[in-house]
Structure formats: structure tokens, C-alpha cells
């Protein structure tokens, strides 16, 4: 019964990608001069992320596999801003940043990003990369900045409407790695931490070492794909792991 859902999801992604591409072609006239990425993540825990893009497949696979949203200077800058910005935003800093040394291989080290913060704590961005280093590219972006901001707003509304209609939330394009099941002991440790017990208190309750509690917490963080114990508790509640 899962295949129709996968087909529907893939159809939706391809439809949105085609709509965006056609719109940009009308603005830029030259399809080889740019590539684009719609990106969305929850600001509380950086997951799940959704990407609809025509960036090179190799780069997108790396980005998702290694969770590059946590170090991507464009995402970090966008999380603190509300207005569109050119990147490199700070040329001296960007030149030294290892992320842009990686992305330069794919000609994704120069572009423009539009930003949207919604009422559900999501950060959405729409980035257009200057593939040919053309000065005309930036003139066209700035000339059409209001249209591009509206393109982001409209795209984000379509994505959120689609996801809300398919609750529980489904990740787009396989961006979020599958959740590994927690062991009974890991669930116990996380539960007691979720009700405010310290690691020492959890160790006493479960008759185990405090170091063992920390070991289980580290495993839970890794399995849930989050950055710390607080986010792990939030994610576990969302997934109803304590039910």
C-alpha cells in the first residue's frame, strides 16, 4: 500500500520542480545560467528538511547524507535574516569556509537566497546559483526580486498544504534518514530524562551506571538524527515513542 503514496509524492515533487523551472526560464531566458533549490527545515531541531531542486544529484546526495544544513553558511545566514541576500555574503569569510570549497566543485559557490520564516517555526529559502558567474544574472535577480520572493511564498504554501494533507508528516524526496528503532532500555532512559530526571537520577532508578545512561542517550541522539538530548525528547514525543 506504500507504493501509491511514493508515486504521489514523486509526482508532486516533479510538478513543483517543473513549475519553478518554467517560471525561472521565462525570467532568465538561458536555462544553463542558473540552478535552484527550495529548502525547508524546522528551526527547533533542523529536521526534517525538504529540498526541491535541480542542483547536481551528487551534491544533493552529499548534502542530505551528511546533514550539511547544520554547517551551510547560506542556511545559517538565512536563519538570522528576513531579507534576501547575495552569497558570498562575506567574501573573505566564505573563501575560507570548507563548505564552499566543497560546493565550488559543483559550481554552487555563488548565488542569491530569498527567505521565509513561517508561523510553525519553519525556515524556508529559495536559492538561485549563478552557474556561469555572469554579472547579468545578478541584474536579473535584483530586477525580479519581488517576483522571486513571491515564488518562494507560493512554493512554500503548496509544500505545506501537501504535507499537512498527508499527516503524519512525510519527508520530501527522502531528505530525512529513516529512524532506527530504539531499544527498550533506550526508551526507558529517554523517558526518565523527559520527565526532568538527571543522568545520575536515571542511573539510580534503573540501577545502572551514569556512564551507561550517557551511552544510551548518545545512541538515541544518533538514531533520531538530532543534535542533543532535548531535541531527542521532542522528536520522541512527535514520533509517539513513549506511547
Q: Main attributes?
A:
11 helices; alpha+beta; disordered N terminus; Arc Repressor Mutant, subunit A; Beta-Lactamase; 243 residues
How would you describe what is shown here?
This protein starts with a helix and ends in a 5-residue tail after the last helix. It folds into two domains: 173 residues, Transcription factor LuxR-like, autoinducer-binding domain (Beta-Lactamase, 2-Layer Sandwich); 55 residues, Winged helix-like DNA-binding domain superfamily/Winged helix DNA-binding domain (Arc Repressor Mutant, subunit A). It has a five-stranded antiparallel β-sheet with strand order 2-1-5-4-3. It has 243 residues and is an alpha+beta fold. Helix content is 53%, strand content 14%. It is built from eleven helices and five strands; from the N terminus they run αββααβααββαααααα.
Give the SSE layout.
Elements: H1 2-28, E1 34-42, E2 49-53, H2 57-66, H3 73-78, E3 85-87, H4 91-96, H5 98-104, E4 111-117, E5 122-130, H6 135-143, H7 145-165, H8 184-194, H9 199-206, H10 210-224, H11 229-238
Antiparallel strand pairs: 1-2, 1-5, 3-4, 4-5
Helix pairs in contact: 8-9, 8-10, 8-11, 9-10, 10-11
Overall mean pLDDT: 81
CATH hierarchy class name of the largest domain: Alpha Beta
Give the overall silhouette. Answer: elongated
Separation, N- and C-terminal Cα atoms? 25 Å
The secondary-structure class comes to: alpha+beta
What is the count of helical runs? 11
| Strand order in space, largest sheet | 2-1-5-4-3
Q: Would you count the extended β strands for me?
A: 5
Fill in the CATH topology of the largest domain. Answer: Beta-Lactamase
Element pattern in H and E? HEEHHEHHEEHHHHHH
Radius of gyration over all CA atoms, rounded = 21 Å
So, CATH architecture of the largest domain? 2-Layer Sandwich
The H-level CATH homologous superfamily of the largest domain, spelled out, is Transcription factor LuxR-like, autoinducer-binding domain
Q: Are there runs of 5+ residues with pLDDT below 50, and where? A: 1-5
> Biggest sheet, in brief?
5 strands, antiparallel
Share of helix, binned: 40-55%
Strand content: 5-15%
Give the number of domains: 2
